[in-house]
Automatic annotation (TrEMBL), chain B:
<dbReference type="InterPro" id="IPR050366">
    <property type="entry name" value="BP-dependent_transpt_permease"/>
</dbReference>
<feature type="transmembrane region" description="Helical">
    <location>
        <begin position="100"/>
        <end position="126"/>
    </location>
</feature>
<feature type="transmembrane region" description="Helical">
    <location>
        <begin position="219"/>
        <end position="244"/>
    </location>
</feature>
<dbReference type="Pfam" id="PF12911">
    <property type="entry name" value="OppC_N"/>
</dbReference>
<dbReference type="Pfam" id="PF00528">
    <property type="entry name" value="BPD_transp_1"/>
</dbReference>
TrEMBL record, chain C:
<dbReference type="GO" id="GO:0005524">
    <property type="term" value="F:ATP binding"/>
</dbReference>
<keyword id="KW-0547">Nucleotide-binding</keyword>
<dbReference type="GO" id="GO:0016887">
    <property type="term" value="F:ATP hydrolysis activity"/>
</dbReference>
<comment type="similarity">
    <text>Belongs to the ABC transporter superfamily.</text>
</comment>
<dbReference type="InterPro" id="IPR050388">
    <property type="entry name" value="ABC_Ni/Peptide_Import"/>
</dbReference>
TrEMBL record, chain D:
<dbReference type="GO" id="GO:0016887">
    <property type="term" value="F:ATP hydrolysis activity"/>
</dbReference>
<dbReference type="InterPro" id="IPR017871">
    <property type="entry name" value="ABC_transporter-like_CS"/>
</dbReference>
<keyword id="KW-0813">Transport</keyword>
<dbReference type="InterPro" id="IPR003439">
    <property type="entry name" value="ABC_transporter-like_ATP-bd"/>
</dbReference>
<dbReference type="InterPro" id="IPR027417">
    <property type="entry name" value="P-loop_NTPase"/>
</dbReference>
TrEMBL record, chain E:
<keyword id="KW-0813">Transport</keyword>
<dbReference type="GO" id="GO:0005886">
    <property type="term" value="C:plasma membrane"/>
</dbReference>
<dbReference type="InterPro" id="IPR045621">
    <property type="entry name" value="BPD_transp_1_N"/>
</dbReference>
<dbReference type="GO" id="GO:0055085">
    <property type="term" value="P:transmembrane transport"/>
</dbReference>
<dbReference type="InterPro" id="IPR035906">
    <property type="entry name" value="MetI-like_sf"/>
</dbReference>
Length: 495, 299, 332, 337, 305
């Protein structure tokens, strides 16, 4: 803790006279991995980066079609939806004092196009031009309906070319943006300190200093919040919700989350190449129970990979919880596995996917499938999944845009279609079409069609969307919960 | 010239003096030590529970079968220790966990001890350069804090019961081999070993017949204390998320599973925690008792 | 005039797991000013326990002073507390032990260990004076380079040197009585000769009284004026050295003398005392020596003989030499 | 002395054991890298012979290399140089099997009766061990033989199943002797067999050793630091000082006319249990020098009352000065002292 | 003495090389492709292969090891796969907390353990002795993380005496230090006690009594220094388990030390960080033991030669 005005030491914070207090301490459940928007995609880092960087356009997270101007004051779209021309704000300065120009915006997008972490988000972009300092022209390869929304994502946070080149490999530790807060310090594993940016081009925020404290243990973090060692606790655990609500000093904010938990299969290897087997699993899984077990019933059940905030969502179709043990057993017999078989469920460590796996493990036992759980370290997990070395897995995907969600999961080259085990030309075609379709209703219809196809061949079994929680002192005002990593501190203030 | 002077003259055969055999003396010393007996009794009970865990509880239906509706029930007459996060009976899991934890503890220590005995005996008996090399290698292993060595091994092999045992056991070997070695060194130059050599006995036979039996006592003590250590370390690894895969009811894993509910439902961590504590306590009492009984002068 | 040290009916028990061991059982003797009294006896017969009791150094537990008196210049030491013993130990009586290596503190220099006695008992001395005295004492015991020796640690000295340092320590406050518990057993013969010679010289010089414990009859013959022979916790014979060696009264003393091979005599076959010392936790009834005694009679098995005077000496045997009948082997 | 007579009678016979210029050095490690910094010359160029049925006594102060010498003869310690000939055969040149066979003829009795017996074995197993190792006799025969041996050393047959801790020091020493006798060896090496025993027990063991010798025609090398004991059992006596044999002579000669100054000092240092005997005593100055770095020249010169310049300069060789009498002293050889 | 120290320092070199070899080998055997990890789940295989080549992951083991040691000698432990930050910097940033924690734990346990151990030995079988033995027994039987959790509930949540997390202010340090010190204090108590009891039976203590020393002089002047010698070895060895135990304690109390970084790194498969941290701590531990050996020699003159 080396920044003036913050109190990362966490002595029970002295009750500063209200109104005078202008700093806030926010918990982080893990140490961020760096603050380079085109390199780092981890949720804790993004929580910080949202406050450091601006994007050309803004959307609430990425799940809203409500697009607001950001660093671009306005924009024109060509008739064929292929060329976007942005008119940039003038007088905007980076935290290092450099003026913001179109060249930086061009640099940012071109950087995003080549950085391995973000390249796949830029697949639709053909080229970027900066004809003058305040104009940026982006040309697409194919029309892409969600392009603007995509551009509001944190990975398009605009960076300063000079700062990036100067810092080289260490840029992640010396981020320079145009946002309301500038980076002060990051002491690894302990805290990240941000300070108010005096030259901010927007409205001056009420909170001047932000400290993010790493508190990996949720129960410790809650004690810290209750003791006043911290002011806000993003992603508080569902189990703690009643305690927080009962605490007169605390407020609990919640929002439907956009992270889906699902079960996936390797549809190319026996026995899950057999559709009957997958169906059997689908009917054997009691989503309610999984939901209770893993989530304490907190959130909403999923009947498809889409939820209410996304295009193409239909609560009635497919059926929410198709659980039917008899049918499942019958299907197993039909598939020739009346006596069941053994398989493994893979998952990446560190989330509550383990609980999902445990419940599913128990449920599969009912239809004779003996599943073992393999909790793998992330790296191993990805590596094995990428080459299709798996049978069943518990997946999670945080991508609250129907196009991305469905593409990632079901497209032949979708990154979460692990090992490209699934390929359905109809779906690939529909996805391309939908992307180019500007009529929302028609697009929704196409998405529904995809959902239906995948439900029928039981390619993946969607389970639920957990709720998003955010606990804070009730004297902290202006808190909005939008996405699990988007908490704009600039809108907060002390009572 | 006769030498049988003492026999007819001594009032009674001298051997009949009331000197006990080492074993009897050991038993008497051990059983006079109340703490040690308590430790032994608890340990025997635990072993009993571990051996008959299958009979006492139904693995499929009580230990791993979930009952989500009844999750996290407080202790009641139906579930004496309550239920866990998946509605499983904690008592049943604690009982079964005895088997797992004791298996981990005992197997790990047994393997480490076997390795330690071989390494220590060879190193101590032959001495010289071989001894030097082996002991330097052991030094190196000892220079890596055992928890870190375990963490590195788990990081490499991944979690899982066998890997945990390897990880924890590896760290124990140097300690055991040192104890064995120093015991061997103290035996090696004893004259009865020299006598066996003088007769022409082979190295192998000497190590087997003379060295190991006489060097065993301190290792056994060390091992008894080691079992508790292993159980705690394994639990610690489980706690860090580097331990045993679910749904195996290892106590450390149970603790770490129950950890997020510690505020609201302390029974989730209380019972597995107590189980670890009692087991380790019993083993420590037993180990101390053994040590005092085997050699009252040992530290 | 009373003796310098008078021990009467001293009894020391050790509480052990096999039962109570009467390590010292009704032992009485006097030490006169200026004399050398030797206590001899086999290992475990209670020699050390006796002299440790005199210094009140028997570890309690497991030991216990079970009775008797220890009069130093008429003052009984047994009832004294540890605190009250402090001015006596090291000052009026001091002691040296068998094993000079383990009896010296390995982490302190010889100088500081010798000096400590002075520190304790001679409060009037300054540190400098103490240092000077230490060196003086060290040279007194024949250490060639006292300053260097004072700065050394015990492990840097040879056995003989260490024993000399021990003696210097014991003599630091010029005690009235020096108790030496097998001071040469751990040393080689040539070194033993040096140490014994040293004790003799010091005695001549200072006239101190020496209580010497040994199991070596040769040492007794060279050093003692009077001898106390112990067997199994009891005194079996006591008397002037010449007479005792010339004509031992007790069968044990007799056997002891006869079974020694000598450098100055040839013998065809050695005499042996058959059997072995009894287990102290389980002494035989009657005379404790009777199982090994060639002259035993029925009475020996039943009644423990009292010390009685004979020939100017004290002996604890039912029969004096003239009254004995040697039993044939196997007659029992 | 029967043994001596028989030895004298067969004087022409080849010696049972011949030790030629035997040296055993122990490396001393030191320095930063634990390199060899020097050697303890524990046994340094010792030569002697042992004849059939005789007892060779060896005396010397603690650390002078007596035990090392014995252990080297048994090849328990690898000699640095020199030869050991048993019945004319070079032991070091032997093959393993041959050596194993030869070991039957050479046995050892140790000083410490407590350490010499494996506490975890019964007396029967201990005494039977040599028989077992040499595959002699089956279990039943072995038991019979062991019981005979027990009787032979004056113990009861019933002790067969007892453990060492049930016995006193003297009894244990008898067990050790029984073990040494099991293979009917020709030569028994006794390393201070009575030093740890009380005087009253010591004579029992000494008598036992002597009677066994005459009964079985044994040959002994008998080590002790007690000159009186050595005198009682030996036919010839060797005196060692700092790894060297300084004098070797028939027992009478040595005790009546010791030639080496060290032998004289040693003899005079021994207290005689007779207050009437008074002797002139030669008190040696100082301690035994450190064997890691023994004095140059005659090793005894630092403590020798007769030391002259030549003693500091040159090492005296063991020289025969009278029939069977050898001494390693410049001045004694010339009869100057 | 200087020679002794130099010798010990020289002996450290092969030990450290050995440590690196062992940990490097363990981590080398880790399944999983670091290149894939760096590039992320979505990167195409060709790109991964190129990176593998660049990182030298295709080189033989010996080459990789030699390179690692070479870099290490220059203070370069590589860069983290997860954050791309040089591992050496992370260690430099994180280790001080771990060291503070371990030192505080050691300090507390010695402060508690030694006096109690001595008193227990001097007043053997007294109430104090019994209580401290019971404490010592219990403390070794309680898993540290469980103790930590219980302490948080009791003193942070319910009594609100101490904060539940962090390690900067004195009050923050209390609970973690107690958690870490408990086991060690128990070990030190037992060790000191038995060592003291052992020493008290020695001949030179009898000599001290025979000189007329009083109890204070005997215990403090003669027994203490001798009985401390084995305790110091234990303290040295236990420093390793404190450094290891810090991993757990840090996790419970959310302390940003090297331990949490390491656990995190394992989760993220961040091999360079795991490797670097383990090697670094092991080296520190070796240095601590070197220091212990030197102290040892200072106390015990027999070891100086
Ligand atoms: N601390 C003790 N605990 C129990 N028994 C003891 C203790 N000290 C001595 N004894 C017993 O008291 C008896 C006399 O012992 P003591 O040491 O006086 O014999 P000693 O004549 O000095 O023998 P040594 O010649 O071996 O020194 C022995 O039988 C011994 O077993
Ligand atoms: N294994 C060994 N390594 C190094 N030095 C040794 C070894 N064994 C003996 N020595 C040294 O060799 C010298 C002779 O030892 P040895 O045991 O032969 O003497 P000894 O005459 O038998 O003495 P003692 O009468 O004490 O038994 C001693 O200085 C001893 O320290
Ligand atoms: Mg004694
Ligand atoms: Mg010897």
């Amino acid at each position: 803790g080396d920044s003036a005005g913050t109190n990362p030491g966490g002595e029970a914070a002295p009750a500063a006279p209200s109104g005078e207090k202008d700093s806030v301490i926010v918990a982080m459940n893990a140490d961020p991995t760096g603050f380079d928007p085109q390199v780092t995609l981890d949720a804790t880092a993004m929580m910080v980066m949202y406050n450091i960087y601006d994007t050309l356009v803004e959307s609430d997270g990425a799940c809203s079609s409500d697009i607001r101007p950001g660093l671009a004051e306005s924009w024109d779209i060509s008739d064929d939806n292929m060329v976007y021309t942005f008119h940039l704000k003038s007088g905007v300065k980076f935290h290092n004092g450099e003026p913001f120009t179109a060249a930086d915006a061009k640099f940012t997008i071109e950087r995003a196009m080549v950085e391995p972490a973000t390249a796949s988000y830029c697949a639709s972009i053909d080229k970027v031009d900066a004809p003058d300092d305040s104009t940026l022209v982006v040309t697409l390869k194919v029309p892409f309906a969600n392009f603007l929304m995509n551009l509001g994502g944190s990975f398009f946070g605009v960076v300063n070319e000079k700062a990036v080149t100067e810092s080289g490999e260490d840029y992640g530790r010396n981020p320079v943006g145009t946002g309301p807060y500038k980076f002060v310090s990051w002491s690894s594993g302990d805290n990240v300190v941000l300070a108010y940016n005096e030259d901010y081009h927007g409205e001056a925020p009420a909170i001047k200093n932000v400290t993010y404290r790493v508190l990996p243990d949720t129960s410790t973090a809650l004690v810290a919040l209750q003791n006043g060692e911290i002011d806000a606790l993003p992603n508080s655990a569902p189990i703690d919700a009643p305690t927080i609500e009962a605490d007169p000093n605390l407020n609990l904010y919640s929002a439907p989350g956009a992270t889906i938990a699902y079960i996936g299969f390797n549809t190319q290897a026996a026995p899950f190449d057999n559709e009957k087997v997958r169906q059997a699993v689908k009917y054997a899984i009691n989503k309610e129970e999984v939901f209770m077990g893993a989530q304490d019933g907190d959130g909403v059940l999923a009947n498809s990979p889409l939820n209410e905030v996304m295009d193409g969502y239909n609560p009635d179709d497919p059926v929410m919880n198709p659980y039917d043990l008899e049918k499942a057993k019958a299907l197993m017999t039909e598939a020739g596995y009346a006596d069941g078989f053994s398989c493994s469920i893979k998952l990446a460590a560190g989330q509550n996917r383990e609980k999902v796996a445990q419940v599913v493990q128990a449920q599969l036992k009912e239809i004779g499938i003996t599943a073992s759980i393999e909790t793998l370290e992330k790296g191993t997990y990805f590596e094995q999944m990428a080459v299709g070395n798996y049978e069943v897995y518990v997946g999670g995907l945080n991508w609250p845009d129907a196009d991305d969600m469905l593409t990632y999961l079901f497209a032949s080259d979708g990154p979460f279609n692990w090992g490209s085990v699934y390929s359905n030309p109809t779906i690939d075609e529909l996805l391309v079409k939908a992307r180019q379709e500007n009529d929302a209703a028609k697009r929704s219809e196409m998405y529904q069609q995809i959902v239906k196809i995948t439900d029928e061949d039981a390619n993946k079994i969607p389970l639920y969307f957990p709720n998003q929680y955010f606990a804070a002192k009730n004297s902290l005002k202006g808190v909005r919960v939008i996405d699990n990593c988007y908490y704009p501190v600039a809108s907060w203030s002390w009572e | 010239m006769t030498v049988k002077t003492e026999k007819p003259l001594s009032a009674r055969p001298e051997g009949e003096e009331k000197k006990e055999s080492p074993f009897k003396e050991f038993c008497r010393r051990f059983f006079r030590n109340k703490q040690a007996v308590i430790g032994l009794v608890i340990f025997v009970m635990l072993v009993f529970v571990a051996v008959f865990a299958d009979v006492l509880v139904d693995y499929d239906n009580q230990v791993i079968k979930q009952d989500i509706v009844n999750k996290r029930q407080p202790p009641s007459s139906e579930h004496l220790m309550g239920t866990d996060d998946y509605g499983r009976d904690i008592l049943a899991r604690v009982i079964y966990g005895t088997r797992i934890s004791l298996t981990i503890g005992l197997t790990t220590v047994a393997c480490a001890m076997a390795a330690g005995i071989v390494i220590g005996a060879v190193s101590g008996y032959f001495g010289g350069r071989l001894d030097n090399v082996i002991m330097r290698v052991m030094d190196v292993f000892m220079s890596i804090p055992s928890m870190l060595l375990a963490i590195a091994v788990v990081a490499s092999l991944g979690p899982g019961i066998v890997n945990i045992m390897i990880a924890v056991g590896l760290a124990l070997v140097p300690g055991y081999s040192r104890v064995v070695r120093s015991a061997v060194l103290s035996v090696r130059n004893k004259e009865f070993v020299q006598a066996a050599k003088a007769v022409g006995d082979s190295h192998f036979s000497i190590i087997l017949h003379h060295i190991i039996p006489n060097a065993l006592a301190p290792v056994i003590v060390q091992a008894t204390l080691g079992v508790g250590e292993v159980i705690i370390t394994a639990a610690g690894l489980s706690f860090l998320g580097l331990g045993i895969a679910p749904p195996m009811p290892e106590w450390g894993a149970m603790l770490s599973e129950g950890r997020e509910f510690i505020r609201y439902m302390p029974h989730l961590v209380l019972f597995p925690g107590l189980s670890i504590m009692i087991t380790v306590l019993a083993l420590n009492l037993l180990g101390d008792g053994l040590r005092d009984a085997l050699d009252p002068q040992m530290k | 005039m009373s003796s310098l040290l008078e021990v009467s009916h001293l009894k020391v028990l050790f509480h052990t797991q096999q039962g109570d061991v009467p390590a010292v059982d009704d032992v009485s003797f006097q030490v006169e000013e200026g004399e050398t009294l030797c206590i001899v006896g086999e290992s475990g017969c209670g020699k050390s326990a006796t002299v440790q009791a005199v210094m009140k150094l028997v570890p309690t537990p497991p030991g216990e002073y079970a009775g008797g008196k220890i009069l130093l210049e008429g003052r009984d030491l047994l009832p004294l507390s540890t605190k009250e013993m402090i001015p006596i130990r090291g000052h009026e009586m001091s002691m040296i032990f068998q094993e000079p290596m383990t009896s010296l503190n390995p982490v302190k220099t010889i100088g500081s260990q010798v000096g400590e006695v002075l520190e304790i008992h001679r409060r009037d001395l300054s540190a400098r004076e103490i240092r000077a005295q230490v060196e003086e004492k060290l040279s007194l015991v024949g250490i060639p380079d006292p300053a260097r020796c004072a700065a050394s640690y015990p492990h840097q000295l040879s056995g003989g040197m260490r024993q000399r340092a021990m003696i210097a320590m014991a003599l630091a406050c010029e005690p009235k009585i020096l108790i030496a518990d097998e001071p040469t057993t751990a040393l080689d013969v040539t070194i033993q000769a040096q140490i014994l010679d040293l004790i003799r010289q010091l005695k001549e010089k200072t006239g101190m009284t020496v209580l010497l414990i040994t199991h070596d009859l040769g040492v007794v013959a060279e050093m003692a004026q009077r001898v106390l022979v112990m067997y199994s916790g009891k005194v079996v014979e006591q008397g002037e050295v010449g007479a005792l060696f010339r004509a031992p009264l007790h069968p044990y003393t007799e056997g002891l003398l006869a079974c020694l091979p000598r450098v100055d005599q040839d013998e065809e076959e050695l005499y042996t005392i058959p059997g072995q010392v009894s287990n102290p936790a389980d002494f035989p009834k009657g005379c404790r020596f009777h199982p090994r005694c060639p002259y035993r009679q029925q009475i020996c098995k039943e009644i423990s003989p009292e010390l009685r005077e004979a020939d100017g000496r004290l002996v604890a045997c039912h029969f004096l030499p003239g009254e004995r009948v040697r039993r044939e082997e196997g007659a029992l | 002395m029967t043994a001596q007579n028989s030895a004298a009678g067969q004087g022409a016979q080849a010696p049972l054991l011949e030790v030629r210029d035997l040296s055993t050095y122990f490396p001393v490690y030191g320095g930063a890298l634990s390199t060899v910094k020097g050697y303890v010359h524990a046994v340094d160029g010792v030569s002697f012979t042992v004849n059939q049925h005789e007892t060779l006594g060896l005396v010397g102060e603690s650390g002078c290399g007596k035990s090392t010498l014995i252990r080297s003869i048994l090849l328990l310690e690898k000699p640095t140089k020199g030869q050991i000939l048993f019945e004319g055969q070079d032991m070091q040149a032997m093959k393993a099997a041959q050596l194993r066979h030869l070991r039957r003829n050479l046995q050892i009795v140790f000083q410490d009766p407590y350490a010499a017996l494996d506490p975890r074995m019964t007396i029967g197993q201990i005494i039977g061990e040599p028989l077992r190792v040499h595959g002699e006799a089956d279990a039943a025969q072995r038991e019979r033989q062991v019981k005979e041996l027990l009787e032979m050393v004056g113990l009861q047959r019933g002790y067969y199943h007892r453990y060492p801790h049930e016995f006193s020091g003297g009894q244990r020493q008898r067990v050790s002797i029984a073990r040494a006798l099991a293979l009917r060896p020709k030569l028994i090496l006794c390393d201070e067999p009575v030093s740890a025993l009380d005087v009253s027990i010591q004579s029992q063991i000494l008598n036992l050793l002597r009677s066994l010798q005459s009964e079985f025609g044994l040959t002994y090398i008998f080590i002790s630091h007690a000159l009186n004991v050595v005198r009682y059992v030996s036919d010839r006596v060797g005196v060692m000082y700092l790894g060297k044999l300084v004098e070797l002579a028939p027992v009478k000669e040595l005790y009546t006319t010791p030639r080496h100054p060290y032998t004289r000092a040693l003899l005079s240092a021994i207290p005689i249990p007779d207050p009437t005997v008074s002797r002139e005593r030669i008190l040696l100055q100082g301690d035994l020098p450190n064997p890691k770095n023994p004095p140059a020249g005659c090793r005894f010169h630092t403590r020798c009352p007769f030391a002259a310049d030549e003693c500091r300069a040159a090492e005296p060789a063991l020289t025969e000065v009278a029939p069977g009498c050898q001494v390693a002293c410049h001045r004694a050889v010339r009869g100057e002292i | 003495m200087l020679k002794f120290v130099l010798k010990r320092i020289l002996m450290l070199i092969p030990v450290i090389l050995g440590i690196v070899l062992i940990v490097f080998t363990i981590m080398y055997l880790t399944p999983g492709d670091p290149a894939r990890l760096i590039l992320g789940e979505k990167a195409p295989q060709e790109q991964v292969d190129v990176l593998r080549d660049q990182m030298g992951l295709n080189d033989p083991f010996v080459v990789q090891f030699a390179r690692y040691v070479g870099n290490m000698l220059r203070g370069d432990f590589g860069r983290s796969y997860a954050t791309n930050i040089p591992v050496a910097e992370t260690i430099a940033e994180r280790f001080p907390k771990t060291a503070e924690l371990a030192l505080a734990g050691m300090f507390l346990s010695v402060l508690i353990g030694m006096p109690i151990g001595i008193l227990s030995a001097v007043k053997r079988y007294s109430i104090l002795d019994n209580i401290s033995m019971i404490f010592a027994m219990l403390a070794t039987a309680i898993p540290a993380f469980w103790l930590g959790m219980m302490l948080i509930i009791a003193f942070s949540l319910n009594l609100k005496w101490f904060p539940s997390s962090g390690f900067d202010t004195f009050r923050q340090m209390v609970l973690p230090t107690i958690t870490l010190a408990a086991v060690n204090a128990a070990v030190i108590i037992r060790m000191t006690r038995s060592s003291m009891l052992e020493v008290v039976r020695q001949d030179y203590i009898r000599t001290a009594w025979a000189k007329g020393a009083d109890q204070k002089r005997v215990v403090l002047g003669h027994a203490l220094k001798n009985s401390i010698i084995p305790v110091i070895t234990v303290i040295g060895i236990n420093f390793g388990s404190l450094l290891g135990g810090a991993v757990v304690t840090e996790t419970v109390f959310g302390i940003p030390g090297l331990g949490t970084a390491m656990v995190n790194a394992i989760r993220m498969k961040d091999n360079p960080l795991v490797l670097g941290s383990v090697v670094y701590i092991a080296i520190v531990f070796s240095l601590v033991n070197l220091a212990v050996d030197i102290i040892y020699a200072l106390i015990d003159p027999r070891l100086r030669e």
